[in-house]
Amino acid sequence: MLETFALYLLLGAIAGVLAGLLGIGGGLVVVPMLVFALPSQGVEMSILMQLALGTSMAAIIFTATSSLKAHHKRGAVRWDVVWRISPGIVLGTFLGALVASRMPTMALKIIFIVFLYYVALQMFLNKKPKASRTLPGITGMFGAGCTIGGMSSLVGIGGGTLSVPFMTWCNLPFHTVIGTSAAIGLPIALAGTAGYVVGGLGNELLPPLSLGFVYGPALIGIVGASVLTAPLGVRLAHSLPVNTLKRFFAALLILVATRMLVGLL
């Protein structure tokens, strides 16, 4: 049990750095690692992905909070954008989590693997959408929020891999995009956690110390480390060659996705 908890602490430390460094909630690392770790604790395969996704969402509440505070201190959060996109984010994420709670775990794994390959490709190519427009109006922001939130709930992430390209496309400065993405991660995580908790209530296959599809021991270990390392990621984002780090992370994502794909086959 101590070795497992140490693994959760390590996952949390990595997730925290990534949250600050790349504007993501760490779910791209946390979810696959939970998928690998949870079966050793007797978690049934039929709820494996739901438990990993729900726990990842709950952990992102804390990593996103720590990261957005650090970015806010640097004046890198566009709060007007956060308020405008949040209604769609909350609705899309909550409904997406409810849908995911009832999906076959095999389907969720396939969605996650495809998403990992997509993110890795984007990072390798370092492709950014052309800043060719301004932020949309109320309806457009609501639709964008629903889309970002719904997809984020299906893969257990804080939305940075989707919100960053969207805001870049809308001509926001990149340092502001990263900080605002971290702030948007909070309503995604709150709504996603609520959806996975509600979706998992009463499930007889859940391990002890679970609240819906949120596994308490993993959450505590991940959060305990991530809140300490998220500010470090923010500092690194302002001092290291992020493009090089992104390519390294992309290679890691490809390895993880391939490992999950082999296990699936």
UniProtKB/TrEMBL annotation:
It is a multi-pass membrane protein. It holds the Pfam family TauE. Keywords: Cell membrane, Membrane, Transmembrane, Transmembrane helix. The chain crosses the membrane at residues 7-35, 47-69, 81-100, 106-125, 137-157, 177-199, 211-232, 244-262. The keyword Transmembrane helix applies. Its main location: membrane. Belongs to the 4-toluene sulfonate uptake permease (TSUP) (TC 2.A.102) family. This is Probable membrane transporter protein. It comes from Desulfobotulus pelophilus. The lineage of its organism: Bacteria, Pseudomonadati, Thermodesulfobacteriota, Desulfobacteria, Desulfobacterales.
